[in-house]
Each structure stands twice: as structure tokens, then as C-alpha cells.
Write a structure and sequence with these properties.
The complex is a heterodimer of chains A (about 160) and B (about 260). With about 160 residues, chain A is an alpha/beta fold. Chain A has helices at about 5-30, 30-35, 135-159, and strands at about 40-45, 55-60, 65-75, 80-85, 95-100, 110-115, 125-130, 130. The longest helix of chain B has about 40 residues, at about 1-40. The chains are: A alpha/beta (about 160), B mainly alpha (about 260).
């Protein structure tokens, strides 16, 4: 085969391969949209984070406003310390409420922020003090069973 | 009785020594290939020519397989996911299984069958017809002239082929899931984008396919170089290339995946 046509084919192949990689990164991996521009960091302490993972989304009113940077264990309080990166464009009041929710019945867990009414806003390095833990299924079931068990004797008495 | 036992043990020992010797020879061969790479890069055209033969000519089989693999994944995945009422997750299933596993692994297996055998047969035949000895006589290193360009061509082609495989596979999955089955298009792409991570999934897939590229090409080259210079020897070497490459790819895949998941 002539050298020029061979070069052309290899060039086409390499360009297509690189385009496929870029396509995977952009269209499939969503590289462009996932990194939020400028961020500020706030922390929140939870007694139980359930299955929350780093890079999980932080949503407010259903809109993704940030991502979890990392999760550590705070030995002074024996609580999980979640560090989140929030988009600079969105400011939240100081008394914002942080809940751990689950997307759907079996979906991944995320943090939902509910804005409070205060005028001061959260700044870089602040901590969200009002938090609600993840719902742990085992706890709920045991509570339910416990309630059921305590109900039964009263019912038998009635009879 | 005692002699028979000794004979069995002797043949076992012989086999083990033979395997270890081949492993050592393969490692030396690999090092020589890397050493002579610089020399072969001076004539980059040789490598480009080999990329044409290993990469471009493998495109058709890789792309067609990718298309069908993607379509089958979507069909099978839909069947199962629909039972749990989460058929929108089909995009995630197709994309993750292609980018993480099937893209690199199936491409490597196809590559071993399509390009690896060609490399082994070509080099084995060059050896049988004493072309390699002739090069040495002319003070041309056959490793720099023949082996290193093919090695780099394989290492460069494999990640590109795997990326194309994943992309075309996702396209096939999309065609089955969205127009054919009627999954919502927005959910298909957005759920996929929400759960495919660039660093964790795509970069790891590229790392995997590069490692497979090194392994497959190296095995093909070594088997060709090591083949007995007879018709039977070359045919056996070609068979060994496919068997060893496939086993190496699957084994390495497990090792790499376990590192990537724990990290």
C-alpha cells in the first residue's frame, strides 16, 4: 500500500479513537458538568451517615448544588464529619438544615439542604449545626418490632 | 515401580523448568524490546505501518462486535431491570459494564485473535525463512526493526480500539433501549452521566486496555520469535498466542479490577 494512504488511515484511526475517548468523557462521564466551578467548603456532623459516600451529590430543592468532598470520623464527638463543596453561586443561611436522604427506595444517598431564615450566610469553613441522620433500615425495623411487642400485652388485656 | 515414580517426577520437573525458562526468556525479550524502542522511534514510519495492520484492520471486527454486545446488553439488562421497575437504569448498566469491563476485555480478546495471531505467524515465518538471521547478518537488529514497532503499535492501538468499542457499544445499547424498547431518552443519558465517573471508570478502563495491549502484543511477539522454524512450530505458536493472551487478559483483569476497586 502506498505510504500516503496508509498514513491517512492511521490518522483517521487515531483521530476516531481519541474522539471516542473524548466522547466517553463528555457524553458518558459528564466531565464538563460534574466539576462545579468555584466552590466553598462547609462541614456538617452526623451521628450516623448510613451509606453516604464521597462524591455523592448535595441537593437543595432537588437541584445539585455541590458534592461531598470527604467523610472523616471525629473522635472528639464520635460523629461522622462530612466535608462538602458547595457552588459559590449558591449561598445558604447559617441555620440551614442538612438531611441525609435516599434517592428512591434503594437508590444512593445524598445530602439535602433546607434553607433556614437567618440573614447571615454560610462561609468557607463554617459548620452546619442542624443535621438529621440517615434512616437506617435495621433501626426502623427494630423500632417497629419493639412497638409491636409492647402493643400486644395491652391488646390481650382488653380481651 | 521406583523408576516409574522418578520418571513422573522428572517429567514434571522438566515441564516446570521449561515454563520458568520461557518466562525468563520472555522477560528478557521484553526488556530488549524496551531498550531497542528508542532506535525504532527514529524510523517512526515503521510503527505507523504496524498501527495500520494491528489497529486499523482490527477496526471492523471490533466495531461490529461492540455494536452487537451493546445491543445484547441493553436487551438483557432491560429484561431484568424492568422486573424491579427501574428500566431507566439501563443506560447506567450498559455504560458501566462496557467502560469498566467489556470494552477493555473483549477488545483485548478480539485483538489477540485478529492481530496477535497475525503478528506471531508473521514473525514465526520470518524466522523460518531466515529473514531475521539475514537482518542480523546485515547488522540490523531484528528487535529494533521488526519487534519494537509492532510492540508500540499494539500498545497504542489497544486503548483506542477499547474506547471505540465502548462508544459504539453504548450507541448500540442506546439504539435498542430508546427507539426500540422505548426507554425515556433523557433518563437514559442523565442516569448514565450521573453514575459514570471520569477518573474511576473511564481512566481505569484506559489503564486496563493499555496493560492488556502490552500483554497481548508481548505474548504474540515472543511466541513468534520463539517459534521453532517449521510449519508445525509456527502453527503451534499461533495457537499458544491466542490461549496465553486470553488467559493473561482474564487473569490481569481480575488483578487490575481488585486493585481499582479497593483503591
Amino acid at each position: 500500500m502506498e505510504r500516503r494512504t496508509l498514513d491517512l488511515w492511521v490518522g483517521v484511526f487515531a483521530a476516531a479513537g481519541i474522539a471516542a475517548l473524548l466522547g466517553l468523557a463528555m457524553k458518558v462521564g459528564n466531565l464538563t458538568a460534574s466539576d462545579i466551578g468555584e466552590t466553598y467548603t462547609v462541614t456538617a456532623a452526623f451521628e450516623n451517615i448510613g451509606g453516604l459516600k464521597p462524591r455523592a451529590p448535595i441537593k437543595s430543592a432537588g437541584v445539585v448544588v455541590g458534592r461531598i468532598k470527604h467523610i472523616t470520623f471525629d473522635t472528639s464527638r464520635y460523629e461522622a464529619l462530612v466535608t462538602m463543596e458547595l457552588d459559590k453561586r449558591y449561598a445558604f443561611p447559617k441555620d440551614t438544615f442538612a438531611n441525609i436522604y435516599t434517592a428512591g427506595l434503594l437508590g444512593e444517598q445524598y445530602i439535602g439542604l433546607e434553607a433556614g431564615g437567618e440573614e447571615d450566610v454560610l462561609k468557607n469553613g463554617d459548620e452546619i449545626t442542624q443535621t438529621q441522620d440517615a434512616v437506617v433500615l435495621e433501626k426502623m425495623i427494630s423500632q417497629f418490632l419493639y412497638n409491636k411487642a409492647s402493643e400486644t400485652p395491652t391488646e390481650t388485656k382488653k380481651e | 515401580m521406583f523408576n516409574q515414580l522418578a520418571e513422573v517426577l522428572r517429567s514434571l520437573g522438566h515441564r516446570i523448568i521449561d515454563r520458568v525458562w520461557r518466562l525468563g526468556a520472555g522477560a528478557r525479550f521484553f526488556i530488549y524490546t524496551l531498550i531497542y524502542s528508542g532506535e525504532s522511534f527514529k524510523r517512526i514510519h515503521l510503527t505507523i505501518r504496524e498501527i495500520y495492520f494491528t489497529g486499523v484492520l482490527s477496526l471492523i471486527i471490533v466495531l461490529v462486535s461492540a455494536f452487537f454486545v451493546g445491543m445484547v446488553l441493553a436487551l438483557q439488562g432491560y429484561n431484568t431491570l424492568q422486573k424491579y421497575g427501574s428500566s431507566e437504569a439501563i443506560g447506567v448498566l450498559v455504560a458501566l459494564s462496557l467502560v469498566r469491563e467489556l470494552g477493555p476485555v473483549v477488545t483485548a480478546l478480539l485483538f489477540a485473535g485478529r492481530a496477535g495471531t497475525a503478528i506471531t505467524a508473521e514473525i514465526g515465518l520470518m524466522k523460518a525463512t531466515e529473514q531475521l538471521s539475514a537482518m542480523e547478518m546485515m547488522a540490523v537488529s531484528p528487535i529494533a526493526r521488526v519487534v519494537a514497532p509492532r510492540f508500540w503499535a499494539g500498545v497504542i492501538s489497544m486503548p483506542l480500539l477499547a474506547a471505540l468499542f465502548s462508544m459504539v457499544g453504548i450507541l448500540g445499547g442506546y439504539l435498542v433501549a430508546v427507539p426500540l424498547i422505548g426507554v425515556d431518552e433523557g433518563a437514559f443519558w442523565s442516569q448514565m452521566q450521573a453514575s459514570v465517573d471520569f477518573r474511576e471508570d473511564i481512566v481505569n478502563g484506559v489503564i486496563k486496555s493499555t496493560v492488556f495491549g502490552v500483554a497481548c502484543t508481548m505474548i504474540a511477539l515472543f511466541e513468534g520469535f520463539d517459534a521453532p522454524p517449521t510449519a508445525e512450530g509456527v502453527s503451534r505458536a499461533t495457537t499458544r498466542t491466542v490461549v496465553n493472551s486470553s488467559l493473561a487478559v482474564l487473569g490481569l483483569d481480575f488483578v487490575l479490577t481488585s486493585f481499582m476497586i479497593s483503591a
